[in-house]
Amino acid sequence: MNILGIETSCDETGVAIYHAQQGLLAHRLFSQIGIHQEYGGVVPELASRDHVRKIIPLVRSVIRDAGEPTIGGVAYTAGPGLAGALMVGASVARSIAWAWRVPALAIHHLEGHLLAPLLESRAPRFPFIALLVSGGHTLLVKVATMGHYETLGESVDDAAGEAFDKTAKMLGLPYPGGPELAKLAEQGQPGRFKFPRPMTDRPGLDFSFSGLKTHALTTFAATGGSRQDKADIAVAFQEAVVDTLAIKCRRAIAATGIKTLVIAGGVSANGRIRSRFTELARQDGFEVYYPRPEFCTDNGAMIAFAGCQRFLSGEIQAGSEIRVRPRWSLDQLTKP
């Protein structure tokens, strides 16, 4: 079975084809960074309009890249995300499915991220603990098997990626700020500034990152504002985020007894996160898995894969109504 996957939850248009036995046949991604750069952030209306322009050419290209296979189903991101952007992908996916007389399946965006490491040749086995860390979400999830998820902790305010982006903007770094801040941190002097590790002095697995932004702002205001000052703040901020994530993950592993950790989402491409968790895995005796960097950000491959797994489990969604869910808790997801 070949599944066409479509992802349009925010500012990246992703399309892929996944075969149940052969794996990923083709995938393409168009990022709108250049469009939103002058605004310093994603403009929802512009994102929707660009999805309209790019999605059909990408579908055609991916089908050609895969060798014109027969498509057995279409999977698309139905939420969470920007309502207009989601509607573009859902409308196109449902229309293609209707025209080809194949089933269409609405996929939860976060499930796509959780399962993205399963696309790799070195893939984790169920059960595992997943740290999903992106611009819109930071949460710890116990993954028993496909579709069986239990949220253990989440951010009570800003997601880690959002905090990265906002701190970068305060430091005057270009959009997208998170990768720019990580790059600047490489030039920073560790130890010059000490940032707090929020909510690590109390029990529980929830996160909070908004206070780190405020701490970065007040620290920056007390300096001369040189590039070295910015670099030193960047490294202190990044270390605080990474330490906080590490503390919470170690707690989750200890509480559940599950020795397999998956780190996924856009921020999982951060080099410091990867080096720190690789070191911790060796030290504490657990296994850690990541998607390749191109599958950390939003992409069609993870949606095609998640869709394929749900189709194989026998899930069929009846009806032709086009509906999206901009707010959709992972805990509300149906179990296959």
From TrEMBL:
PROSITE patterns: GLYCOPROTEASE. This is tRNA N6-adenosine threonylcarbamoyltransferase. NCBIfam families: gcp_kae1, T6A_TsaD_YgjD. Required for the formation of a threonylcarbamoyl group on adenosine at position 37 (t(6)A37) in tRNAs that read codons beginning with adenine. Is involved in the transfer of the threonylcarbamoyl moiety of threonylcarbamoyl-AMP (TC-AMP) to the N6 group of A37, together with TsaE and TsaB. TsaD likely plays a direct catalytic role in this reaction. Its EC number is 2.3.1.234. It comes from Candidatus Methylospira mobilis. Belongs to the KAE1 / TsaD family. It comes from the Bacteria. The keyword Protein biosynthesis does not apply.
